[in-house]
Amino acid sequence: MNQTIDVIMKRRSIRAYSDAPITAQEKKDILDATLRAPTAGNMMLYSIIEINSLELKAKLSESCDHQPFIAKAPWVLLYLADFQRQVDYFDHCEVPRLCQERAIPYRTPEAADLMLACCDALIAAQTTVIAAESLGIGSCYIGDIMEQYEVHRDLLHLPKFAFPIALLCLGRPIREFSEKSRSTRFEQEFIVYKDSYRRLSSDDFKRMYGLLESPAGEPRLYYQGAENIGQAMYLRKTSADFSLEMVRSVKVMLENWK
Fold it and tell me: What is the pLDDT of residue 193?
């Protein structure tokens, strides 16, 4: 196994950080690597906001589904799907005038542009994760930044065509973790298909989720009295208050984007 794959295989989400600082040089190296991430048409349809203010971190730790460790993270980066910069540049270059002169419609950003910008931002974020991991700096994604859109928009002064798609907490792990402590991932046969999509069968699901079941003979209590992992997952994630808030928040953002 080469060094890069070894770094990826050992990565895990880190939510408790040591007091060891992340140096200015490490931050520069990580961000330099981040900006080398693949991007659609070399447009770099993303922006990154460093959250340095302790007050701002504390507010985000509450608005992002009440997660106190966000406030304690040594380095917090917010990744925006950002088409605002492109729109502003088009204005700077007088693209609307050009369109008018040539009798062609001037198209403002639509849903497809948002999807493209989200891809750019998330690829950049994952590049940050791997670069940081290679330096012994752990990370944790906070998807809850997509909740409370109005709050985050006002808190961070976000323009119309900039959407917070991922928050990333970074810091050195407070302790070493064993291989067994890492969360389980599904086997390739359930995730990687050849040439076309494959719907999984009941037997597939039994084998796929069997990895998460308790050993034979040991009873397992599921979340809120659910009968199995699927029911527990729905109750804990899909129908949970934070998930419903994310649905509401993204709808508001999409309406604003349109």
Answer: 96
User: Where are the strands (E) in 66-200, listed by range?
Assistant: 75-82, 138-142, 162-171
pLDDT along the chain (258 residues), means of 10: 90 93 97 97 97 97 96 97 97 97 96 96 98 97 96 97 97 76 81 96 92 67 84 92 95 90
Query: Quick check: helix, strand or coil at residue 197?
Result: coil
Backbone φ and ψ for 12, nearest 5 degrees, come out as -150, 160
DSSP 224-237: GG-SSHHHHHIIII
In CATH terms, 3-183 corresponds, of 3.40.50.300, 3.40.109.10, 3.40.50.360, 3.40.50.10610, to 3.40.109.10
Cα radius of gyration (the chain): 21
Nearest to 57 by CA among 167, 164, 146: 167
Inter-residue contact 60 to 51 (CB < 8 Å): yes
- Mean pLDDT (the chain) is 93
CA distances to 9, 89, 97, 180, 235 from 102, rounded to whole Å, are 53, 19, 9, 63, 55
Pairing, β 46-51 against β 138-142: unpaired
Whole-Å CA distances, 74 to 26, 126, 161 = 13, 18, 29
CA 76 vs CA 54, 83, 124: distances in Å: 10, 22, 15
Per cent of the chain over pLDDT 90 is 83
